[in-house]
Amino acid sequence: MAFKDVDRYTFYAGQPQPTAESSGHFESIDPSNGESTCKIYNSSPKSIDAAIQSAQSAFPSWSSTPPVERARILQRAVALLRKHNDALARVETIDTGKPFSETSTVDIVTGADVLEYFANLVGSGGLNGESFRLRPDAMVYTSKEPLGVCAGIGAWNYPIQIALWKSAPCLAAGNCMVYKPSEFTPLHAEYLAGLYREAGVPDGVFNVVYGAGDVGAYLTKHPTIAKVSFTGQISTGKKVAGAAAGEMKYVTMELGGKSPLVVLPDAAVDQAVDVAMMANFYSTGQVCTNGTRVFVPRAMKTSFERVLVEKMKYVRAGDLFNPATNFGPLSSRVHKDKVISYIKHGVASDKATLLCGGPEPPTGLPAALRDGYWVRPTVFTDCTDDMAIVKDEIFGPVMAILAYDAVDEAVGRANATDMGLAAGVVGRDVDACHGVVARLQAGIAWVNTWGESPAEMAVGGWKQSGVGVENGRKGLESWVRNKSTLVEMGGSVATVFSKL
User: Superkingdom of the source (predicted)?
Assistant: First the structure.
């Protein structure tokens, strides 16, 4: 498969459809330098209908394919993903602005892991139901049935990984998918569709439509769509979930967060700083689970800040294909403007202490990258819970340090938010860490680390941060519906309508 920056069109019936009706186009932009890479043609309602029809036509055959056969096909797709890892990682770097050192070791690798996990799961009986004897002459058995044609709406921060997180359990369970990537990072979608086809996934099982929120809204309301899986910000997720629920569709919503990281008094300062940096600056802070509210014991605050400032020199912006680079630009100009506005607000209005960073671009960037969407990794300290930079999801490399005096106080403040996606604890006493994690109101938690989300681990948010889970055994349940059957074996029917 050739990986070239070519124009993108609606993909259905196993191929791009350049002759399909479109509603204009937009440019795909390389965030590192602000330059256009190709044109993306918006999918019109007519072409979205055609993609859905393609999926609907493929569903009867794909859903009746034995799970072990589907598993073999999906395993071939896993092998192709791993074979083309570096080429796909290059696409992700150009599309997202994340360093190649990250995309080549995380994005495709973890997406392939999820596809492999669900292929193995359905191939080894993961879709089996249960049966039991209800009474001597009656039994009950259950089956897990696919839903039908499902919509996947992706986010821009981990494009191909999110596409695989959605399509892997969807396809493994016997469903078909119409997938809409983010308009900010759309390049991966056609390549993934092509890899699925090369692996043997039948035409129509995985289809791609392009566009902004209007395309997602059309998908969500379409009467043929049985389920919507959405990853994105809370405000959009509420609209998507509301529209889908109004049509009695299944939904999975993975939304935003403002996650707390609680550093316990016995924590090793070096380790706590390393966890905090991973929780704030990896992927340039564009991670929904980021631990941007860092609660530090007041007695540790000075030493924590000293070590943090010393280690900030290891955040290296620059040429994204230089193996030493570990920090890229933000994904788009509009997002850069948003993050910079929050940094300026933190200084001017919140009156937090700017420990390092700020609204200026990083120094030392090559001339060819100076028009990209770069910001400095930024740390505020002396923060209070009512500051905008502490309350709002910035979705950028902006850390807020909050001092506390007692662990109970830190837990209470950590939970004082409408969001509940992730949380973390750092400390030497693992029993104490477990005790704090048990009290934190979040669907994903880490102890003495941050960010790892293996395929086996079901993840999802609490409160406003989501509905349902992705990955793990529970993740497969989100893509099937249950059918229970009672079988009477007594040879007669109990009836009240008999002769007296």
Answer: Eukaryota
Residues in the chain: 500
Q: To which residue do tokens 């770069």 refer?
A: 374
Q: Give the confidence band of 44 by pLDDT, cuts at 50, 70, 90.
A: very high
Could you write out the DSSP letters of every residue in 18-73?
Answer: TTS-EEEEEEEEETTTTEEEEEEEEEPHHHHHHHHHHHHHHHHHHHHS-HHHHHHH
* Amino acid letter for position 289: T
Strand runs labelled E in 360-407: 378-381, 398-404
277 CB burial (10 A radius; 0-12, 13-18, 19+): buried
Please write the tens of the pLDDT for every residue from 95-132.
Answer: 999 999 999 999 999 999 999 999 999 999 999 999 99
Instruction: Report CA Rg, the chain.
Output: 24
Whole-angstrom Cα distance, residue 325 to residue 373?
16
Q: Is residue 242 part of a domain?
A: yes
Strands ordered across the beta sheet of 466-467: 15-16, 11-12, 206-208, 176-180, 149-153, 225-231, 250-254, 466-467
| Predicted TM-score (pTM) of this structure | 0.95
Q: What is the amino acid identity at position 450?
A: W
CATH code of the domain in which 434 resides: 3.40.309.10
Verify whether residue 254 is a known catalytic residue. Answer: yes
Is 288 an active-site residue?
yes
Catalytic residue among 98, 144, 166, 336: 166
Residue among 92, 116, 254, 393 flagged as catalytic:
254
Residue 1: the pLDDT is 57
Q: Which residue is catalytic, options 150, 170, 176, 288?
A: 288
Of these residues, 92, 116, 190, 470, which one is catalytic?
Answer: 470
231 and 283 share one domain = no
Domain assignment of residue 4, yes or no: no
CA distance 471 to 467: 13
**Is residue 150 flagged as an active site residue?**
no
Total number of domains constituting the chain: 2
What integer pLDDT is reported at residue 3 of this predicted model?
Answer: 60
Q: Do 163 and 192 meet the contact criterion of CB atoms below 8 Å apart? A: yes
Tell me the CATH number at 134: 3.40.605.10
Q: What is the span of the domain harbouring residue 294?
A: 260-447
Together in a domain, 28 and 167: yes
Query: 198, 206 in Cβ contact below 8 A?
Result: no
Q: What is the sign, positive or negative, of the torsion defined by CA atoms of 489, 495, 499, 500?
A: positive
Beta carbons of 218 and 50 less than 8 angstroms apart:
no
Helices (H) and strands (E) in the chain, counts: 16, 22
Amino acid at 267: A
CA pair distance 287, 291, nearest whole angstrom: 9
Q: Which of 332, 313, 329 is nearest to 365 (CA)?
A: 329
Say if 5 falls within a structural domain.
no
Q: Are residues 230 and 379 in the same domain?
A: no
Q: Is 360 a catalytic residue?
A: no
